[in-house]
Amino acid sequence: QVQLVESGGGLVQAGGSLRLSCAASGRTFSSYAMGWFRQAPVKEREFVGAISRSGGIRYYADSVKVRFTISRDNAKNTVYLQMNNLKPEETDVYYCAARTRLLANMTFRARGEYDVWGQGTQVTVSS
User: Fold this and answer.
1) 3-state SS assignment for residue 113
2) Radius of gyration (Cα) for the chain, nearest Å?
């Protein structure tokens, strides 16, 4: 069973930066599509970014384009989310997710396409 562990969350001032990491167990990490989502209390979990198995294709929510960068290191079984120019409204719990089985026509943006989730890491942006 694949396990995902996020780290790197914390408190940052508006305009600041954080780098989230998500470490995966197992030996087939390079076969997983990976995504980042975020969720505030009483709100739905929303898509932030995703990356293909090789890292060659990346997807972003419109609200984070230019400011956020998703990347992966398959040798380290880790996916990253570099977040710059953070805004107070981006205070959320950030979740890492993996699609461990091939899915035809995957959009990468839908929560239901991912079958393994981490526990989340809190990001708090102060104004």
Assistant:
1) helix
2) 14
DSSP codes joined into one string, 72-90: EETTTTEEEEEE-S--GGG
Beta-strand runs (E) in the chain: 4-7, 10-13, 18-24, 33-39, 46-51, 58-60, 68-73, 78-83, 92-99, 116-117, 121-126
Helix (H, G, I), strand (E, B) or coil at 10: strand
Report yes or no: 97 and 36 within 8 Å, Cβ to Cβ: yes
- Reported as a single tens digit per residue, the pLDDT across 85-123 is 999 999 999 999 999 988 889 999 999 999 999 999 999
Separation of CA 17 from chain center: 15
pLDDT tens for each residue of 13-24: 999 999 999 999
